[in-house]
Amino acid sequence: MDSIPGNRQLWNQISSAYQHRHDPQIGAAPRLWGMYSIPDAHLHALGDVTGKRVLELGCGAGQWSRALAAEGATVVGVDLSEAQLAAASRAMGTARYPLVQGAAEQLPFAADSFDLVFCDFGGLSWAPPHLAVPQAARVLVRGGRLVFNVASPWFEVCYDEAAGRVTTTLQRDYFGLDTIAEDDGATSYQLTYGDWVKVLRGAGLVIDDLIEPRPEPGTPNGYNETDPPDWGHRWPAELLWVTHKP
């Protein structure tokens, strides 16, 4: 299915409210991963980016991109939404970097363009992974890395739509994960662990690590209500994949 028009429309609609709610947290400090804003210094997923050519796949308002540009990376931010790109442009600091409108499943870049492609609940949450992962692999140089954070299947199958929160009860089939209907005709995507492995290996990538970020007890989830509040400390809410192109 073509989820690009619906997803672009959704993010254009919610961009302002999203940034108003979340930028004070995710824009206040560099390199914060996921729903619990866990520092990369604790997870060691990205490493040193100085001098690296970096693509943020679904950059939003550029919180990650501007931090990595300030560290000396040559960054490009790509996003589906012109409203999100406008927010990124307004927030850009002294370290300037290009912004490109595009979709993760149709990347407008030449092969072998980047040393690192990464996203944090970006393009690999909002584009079909069987299309987007091969595109990410295509634009990587040999030895380049694809690093990305997405929701865990556990988190998805325990989400109670009626209650609007994640619970301790299985709500949907694990083996039925694929497309997830979001508001206003938008679509996000989720795979089982096995299907993520198949997609990554099928794109010619080597899996170096699978980090399951675990927040400390009492760390709030900045995006979803969970019952119990320490859900993410007890079960994996996210998958942070670290891969490379041999």
Automatic annotation (TrEMBL):
Listed EC numbers: 2.1.1.-
Record-linked InterPro entries: Methyltransf_11, SAM-dependent_MTases_sf
Signal sequence segment: none
One Pfam family of this chain: Methyltransf_11
One BP annotation, GO: methylation
Gene Ontology MF terms: methyltransferase activity
Domain Methyltransferase type stretches: 55-148
Origin: domain of life: Bacteria
UniProt keyword Methyltransferase present: yes
Class of enzymatic activity (EC top level): transferase
Keywords: Methyltransferase, Transferase
PANTHER family registered for this protein in UniProt: METHYLTRANSFERASE (PTHR43591)
Protein name per UniProt: Class I SAM-dependent methyltransferase
